[in-house]
């Protein structure tokens, strides 16, 4: 069995992440990768994939469903949780940290699992970083909007220009040892309260 | 102990369910902090995660299905490692729900809104028999995990009503939050789960609650606090402090006046992420079974009353008897000893005795003999237990597990699914 023959099943209801993992595995030479992105994995879908390795993200409640199917179904060759051999502790820790769990079908040797798992873990991590990056960008955009609105209020109420309004926010933030976005938020809250608007 | 800055960190995993309340409240109402514990709660999404992260040492303790520490200690789960039960998280709180179609068939067969397990089981047996006669596919029932109280309570009820859970119906596993959807989509025909996931189907108009597990086995145990045995061994003081905090939390949770605040706190996305109104039924035991008015269900749930948190050895042994009954475990002197060792009323006593909590003198009881609330012998204070009867009148003597298992006509492992 060469790399290209190992069948890998990824169960993840986050389709984008599943694709990111699939792509990584293909790049590493594993061509037989299938994905189940359904919120309700069926025995038939698993039988069709006939996997040597199954990956499932740790936030997926279907882990319990999957383990039950492995136990009671005659049709599925019985994969077992990766957490069997305590000598794999470092590998297990890395997997859990990345948020992925692996099941291997008896017969697939540990040495062969290692590179597959490494690829999956690095892809899971890469996806998490991507998501964090996206969250950060979103947050920055949000904060930018808050600061702009706060500047507008200061300009109107104090009759100052935009640069002065910005300087005022920045100075206040420095004096109070707070983030400028937080000071801006306080301005918005205060303005809402004073104008009888939404709390 | 006065409120000081926390000194010990205890990491605990939980699944978003109403019966994790004691653990969650111990943290958010400050009971843990008062005991010098920084209780870190981590929301998990599968029992498999809970099991693995306890075994790996990520969690010291966790909200667990009562049979899980037993299964882990017996080596029936992948990663092994002994897990102990030093405290129970309550009694009751589960129900059995069926689809509207099954309920219609049951009502034709005479089912009413009484919730009586025998009458409901008879009606369901009629539906099962009719489907068989017509050559229709078997009904499928879901539970939350193979090693769950729900699995054993559902099987017990079905079998006692003459429905063989191995052959007359299909059994599958569905995560609690997906139950209502699976029922609505026709993927399953019924299920047994804790609240609020029965009421969720009723609220959505997709199912009908037929009976409660508190009617199948009165005062039956529900989730437990599972602790990794080696952690508990090394940290006796921290564990005792946690049990004290959780005891106080259980009293707080059991007080009816706290119900509105409790559902409000639990509804946060960090904990259950369920609307407070949906949780109220399971909390108060005023349950809407189907279309109609809520009705009080006797003794539906206790967080503290009736020694609800006491880890009875006989409760653990009953779960073990069902594992043996259904072919999941073998009854030998060694396995029996392992199960006994995994239940730790001694640790519970040591932690709560000094607080003057009324503790039963016995650690095991014959289950199913109390027909009504009965005062029992304690070292201090007054304690009432029961009723604790099984709906079919059987009695479980924890000293006679083999005879008990053999007394069931329907027993043994099921055939594998195709």
From TrEMBL, chain A:
For the modification 4-aspartylphosphate, which residues carry it? 57
SMART domains referenced in this protein's UniProt entry, alphabetically: ANTAR (SM01012), REC (SM00448)
Q: Which GO terms describe its biological process?
A: phosphorelay signal transduction system
- Boundaries of each ANTAR domain copy? 127-188
Example GO molecular function: RNA binding
Q: Where is the Response regulatory domain?
A: 7-121
A Pfam family it matches: Response_reg
InterPro entries for the chain: ANTAR, CheY-like_superfamily, Sig_transdc_resp-reg_antiterm, Sig_transdc_resp-reg_receiver, WH-like_DNA-bd_sf
Q: Which domain of life is it from?
A: Bacteria
Give the PROSITE patterns listed for this entry. Answer: ANTAR, RESPONSE_REGULATORY
UniProt keyword terms in alphabetical order: Phosphoprotein
Protein's recorded name:
Two-component system response regulator
From TrEMBL, chain B:
- Localization per Swiss-Prot or TrEMBL: Endomembrane system
Primary residence: membrane
Gene3D superfamilies per UniProt: Periplasmic binding protein-like II (3.40.190.10)
* Keyword entries, A-Z: Cell inner membrane, Cell membrane, Membrane, Transport
| Superkingdom, taxonomy of origin | Bacteria
Question: What Gene Ontology cellular component terms go with this record?
Answer: endomembrane system
> What is the designated name of this protein?
Nitrate transporter
What lineage, starting at the top, does this entry show?
Answer: Bacteria, Pseudomonadati, Pseudomonadota, Alphaproteobacteria, Rhodospirillales
């Amino acid at each position: 069995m060469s790399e290209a023959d190992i069948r890998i099943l990824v169960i993840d209801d986050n389709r984008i992440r599943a694709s990111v993992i699939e792509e990584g595995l293909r790049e590493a030479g594993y061509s037989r990768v299938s994905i189940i992105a359904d919120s309700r994995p069926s025995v038939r879908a698993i039988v069709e994939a006939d996997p040597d390795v199954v990956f499932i993200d740790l936030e997926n409640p279907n882990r319990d469903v999957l383990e039950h199917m492995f136990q009671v179904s005659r049709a599925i060759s019985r994969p077992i949780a990766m957490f069997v051999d305590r000598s794999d502790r470092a590998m297990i820790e890395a997997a859990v940290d990345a948020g992925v769990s692996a099941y291997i079908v008896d017969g697939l040797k540990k040495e062969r699992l290692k590179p597959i798992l490494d690829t999956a873990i690095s892809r899971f991590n890469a996806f998490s970083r991507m998501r964090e990056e996206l969250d950060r960008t979103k947050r920055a955009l949000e904060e930018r909007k808050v600061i702009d609105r706060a500047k507008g209020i200061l300009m109107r109420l104090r009759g100052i220009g935009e640069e002065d309004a910005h300087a005022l926010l920045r100075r206040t933030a420095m004096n109070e040892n707070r983030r400028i976005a937080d000071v801006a938020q306080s301005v918005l809250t205060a303005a809402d309260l004073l104008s009888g608007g939404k709390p | 102990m006065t409120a000081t800055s926390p000194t010990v960190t205890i990491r605990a995993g939980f699944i978003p369910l109403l019966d994790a309340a004691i653990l969650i409240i111990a943290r958010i109402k400050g009971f843990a902090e008062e005991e010098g514990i920084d209780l870190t709660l981590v929301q998990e999404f599968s029992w498999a995660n809970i099991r693995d992260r306890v075994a790996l040492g990520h969690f010291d303790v966790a909200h667990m299905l009562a049979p899980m520490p037993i299964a882990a200690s017996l080596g029936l789960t992948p990663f092994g490692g002994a897990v102990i039960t030093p405290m129970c998280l309550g009694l009751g709180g589960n129900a059995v729900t069926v689809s509207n179609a099954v309920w219609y068939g049951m009502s034709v067969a005479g089912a009413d809104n009484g919730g009586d397990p025998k009458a409901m089981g008879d009606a369901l047996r009629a539906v099962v028999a009719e489907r068989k006669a017509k050559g229709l596919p078997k009904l499928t029932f879901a539970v939350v995990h193979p090693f769950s109280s729900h699995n054993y309570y559902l099987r017990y009820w079905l079998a006692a009503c003459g429905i063989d859970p191995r052959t007359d119906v299909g059994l599958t596993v569905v995560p609690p939050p997906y139950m209502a959807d699976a029922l609505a989509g026709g993927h399953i025909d019924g299920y047994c789960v804790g609240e609020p996931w029965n009421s969720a189907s009723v609220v959505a108009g997709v199912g009908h609650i037929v009976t409660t597990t508190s009617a199948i086995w009165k005062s039956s145990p529900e989730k437990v606090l599972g602790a990794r045995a080696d952690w508990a061994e090394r940290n006796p003081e921290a564990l005792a402090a946690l049990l004290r905090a959780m005891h106080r939390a259980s009293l707080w949770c059991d007080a009816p006046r706290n119900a509105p605040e409790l559902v409000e706190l639990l509804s946060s996305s960090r904990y259950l992420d369920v609307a407070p109104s949906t949780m109220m039924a399971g909390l108060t035991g005023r349950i809407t079974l189907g279309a109609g008015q809520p009705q009080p269900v006797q003794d539906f749930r206790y967080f503290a009353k009736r020694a609800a948190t006491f880890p009875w050895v006989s409760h653990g042994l009953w779960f073990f008897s069902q594992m043996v009954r259904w072919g999941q475990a073998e009854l030998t002197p060694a396995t029996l000893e392992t199960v006994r060792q995994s239940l730790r009323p001694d640790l519970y006593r040591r932690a709560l005795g000094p607080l003057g909590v009324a503790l039963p003198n016995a650690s095991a009881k014959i289950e199913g003999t109390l027909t009504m609330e009965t005062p029992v012998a304690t070292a201090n204070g007054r304690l009432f237990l029961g009723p604790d009867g099984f709906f079919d009148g059987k009695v479980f003597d924890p000293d006679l597990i083999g005879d008990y298992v053999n007394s069931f006509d329907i027993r043994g492992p099921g055939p594998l699914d195709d």
